[in-house]
Design the sequence.
């Protein structure tokens, strides 16, 4: 950013998570560019206290109200405002000084704070892909109405966003989302029946929160990203292709009308897309790792196997159906991932339950926010009933 620019004031929702912590590392890398106004967490109060003492934000919020007293007491010697409860997250994002809200909380919980931030005219650095999956159309309308940018943090979408810089209205023929394939890329259908959560939690290339790590192992992450890409870049589902690229060096690609393909490459380090979203359109210097093409042995590509990983197909199906179906897909997936992490269902049962949810929950065209909240609730109850 130009030296004359004022510091960008940011709120980090989910600051104790994988993306939240890395966002704070980006702030530390460029304290002259960014100022932390608010930090929020759900459970990990000790981590939030340590972050608050270090970064001295104006305010902190702990969603779990049972931890509020502990947080308040631990910070009483500092002039930091302390709040408890999920509603407080929806309110803090509206604070006047905030320029950018980083949505690094996980799951459906990201939706309402994102909407409130947009309505307050804040730029969104979007990590919480579930928001766009559940309510992409509605969120886009609001962002347009309130003239706020939605800047992608997800590495694939950041890659596409970077490839589109300078392309103005040039027609996109195809988006090519790369996928690592996860830890079970080479597993047979039979082997997938017995995989454990410990195996699923070991991602080959990225270190992330538990939910997205399971999503990556089941390919649901790529399905959610296809839906996210549709709403961020306005392309038809059929013009979004997924290619498995196990090395995670090419973060995604755009093919244009003339057949030219642009790609963005980098080490698998989320701090780069986070920083680009925060400093856009400027590229700030970084000390993060660099690619060394002389030691890189190979970049390989293969088609995703939809039979072994049906989630990707289910996501395309939900996207093409539209209405509240992506919301059903997301809610069913959140319940299944949690059940798998609690050893209540097998890995392969997740896809079966999600498919059943898509067939069972009533379809609604053009759902309102309240109808989406109701869809989320009904789907959760339905799938929990089956488990
Ligand atoms: P983590 O699980 O590591 O962190 C989630 C954060 O959200 C934590 O701070 C957590 O608080 C908070 N949180 C969880 N539930 C709630 C809730 N109900 N209300 C308020 N806060 C809540 O997740 P990640 O950082 O891995 O992922 C965050 C988002 O970013 C997800 O949507 C994910 O899909 C997306 N993303 C992540 C990537 C990654 O590399 N990790 C890459 C691309 C996208 P606490 O810690 O206190 O429990
Ligand atoms: Mg991604």
Sequence:
């Amino acid at each position: 950013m130009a030296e004359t620019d004022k510091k960008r004031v940011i709120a980090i929702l989910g600051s104790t998570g994988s993306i939240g912590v890395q966002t704070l590392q980006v702030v530390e890398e460029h304290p002259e560019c960014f100022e932390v106004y608010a930090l929020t967490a759900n459970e990990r109060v000790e981590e939030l206290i340590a972050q608050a003492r270090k970064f001295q934000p104006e305010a902190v919020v702990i969603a779990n109200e049972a931890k509020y007293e502990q947080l308040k007491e631990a910070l009483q010697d500092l002039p930091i405002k302390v709040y408890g409860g999920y509603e407080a997250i929806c309110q803090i994002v509206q604070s006047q000084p905030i320029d950018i809200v980083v949505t690094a909380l996980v799951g459906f919980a990201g939706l309402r704070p994102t909407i409130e931030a947009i309505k307050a005219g804040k730029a969104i650095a979007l990590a919480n892909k579930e928001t766009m999956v559940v309510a992409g159309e509605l969120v886009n309308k609001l962002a347009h109405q309130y003239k706020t940018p939605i800047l992608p943090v997800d590495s694939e979408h950041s890659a596409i966003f970077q490839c589109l810089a300078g392309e103005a209205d040039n027609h996109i023929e195809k988006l090519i989302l790369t996928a690592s394939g996860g830890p079970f890329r080479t597993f047979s259908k039979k082997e997938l029946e017995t995989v454990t959560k410990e195996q699923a939690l070991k991602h080959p290339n990225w270190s992330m929160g538990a939910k997205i790590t399971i999503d990556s192992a089941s390919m649901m992450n790529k399905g959610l990203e296809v839906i996210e890409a549709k709403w961020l870049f306005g392309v038809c589902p059929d013009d979004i292709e997924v290619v498995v690229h196990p090395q995670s060096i090419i973060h995604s690609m755009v093919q244009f009308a003339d057949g030219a393909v642009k790609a963005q490459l980098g080490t698998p380090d989320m701090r780069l897309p986070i920083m680009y979203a925060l400093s856009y359109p400027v590229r700030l210097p970084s000390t993060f790792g660099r690619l060394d093409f002389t030691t890189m042995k190979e970049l390989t590509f293969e088609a995703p196997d939809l039979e072994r990983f049906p989630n990707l197909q289910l996501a395309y199906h939900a996207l093409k159906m539209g209405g509240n179906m992506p919301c059903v897909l997301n809610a069913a997936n959140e319940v299944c991932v949690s059940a798998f992490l609690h050893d209540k269902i097998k890995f392969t049962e997740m896809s079966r339950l999600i498919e059943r949810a898509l067939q069972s929950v009533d379809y609604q065209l053009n759902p309102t926010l309240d109808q989406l909240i109701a869809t989320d609730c009904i789907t959760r109850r339905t799938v929990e009933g089956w488990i």
Q: What stands out?
A: The first strand starts at residue 8 and ends at 13. The two ends are 51 Å apart (CA to CA).
